[in-house]
């Protein structure tokens, strides 16, 4: 990979935080470091050996160092890199800036969801990067109806844990699409969800959904005129 992996780790520290003791995230999942899920992902024997920790019980009792947290996050990023390259070998040939963009999106959205940006990937394969940028936005907008429906349903159910997951994915997706207001609202909503500030969620989430509907309607209007 040409990009500086540490640049992505630094972004993850800002978005996920860095905690050296085991804690429960907003979904109630045991977590440590830079968002390492201890229930689904866990810590492998090889990772424990590298950190010079005899077993997972010691992690729960004593925690880890900052160097350990960066090491675990680096491994998490590497898994995403490998999954993305398997799906799209052209990622290996991208320059550092473009690699950082697609890997950051894949880490936040998940590779399966990013794979739905089919026209964007077709343009990247053709090394047509201006078209790829346009298709990134178009693919993002194409997913908005599903996103709006999901967010609205979760909001009706007052499912704050589900909302955090979906808003996090939306925030990760819109960072590179040239939609600064939606990015701002997604960031504000995600922050209030992480902090459990439900009164702020009541203000921010409807504004985010309204902005998503506005972007979608403006896109439909533009298409009807072209």
Task: Walk me through the structure.
The protein is mainly α and 226 residues long. It has 2 domains: 5-93, Lysozyme; 142-225, no CATH class. Helix content is 70%, strand content 5%. It has 12 helices and 3 strands. It has helices at residues 5-16, 45-50, 56-62, 66-87, 96-109, 111-114, 118-125, 129-142, 144-156, 160-174, 180-194, 198-225, and strands at 19-24, 30-33, 36-37. The chain has a 3-stranded antiparallel β-sheet with strand order 1-2-3. Strand 2 (30-33) and strand 3 (36-37) form a beta hairpin.
SSE layout:
Layout (H helix, E strand, L loop, with lengths): L4 H12 L2 E6 L5 E4 L2 E2 L7 H6 L5 H7 L3 H22 L8 H14 L1 H4 L3 H8 L3 H14 L1 H13 L3 H15 L5 H15 L3 H28 L1
Antiparallel strand pairs: 1-2, 2-3
Ranges where pLDDT stays below 50 over 5 or more residues in a row are none
CATH topology of the largest domain: Lysozyme
Q: Helical segment tally? A: 12
Distance between the termini: 40 Å
CATH class of the largest domain, named: Mainly Alpha
Order of helices and strands: HEEEHHHHHHHHHHH
- Major sheet: arrangement of strands: 1-2-3
Q: What about the largest sheet?
A: 3 strands, antiparallel
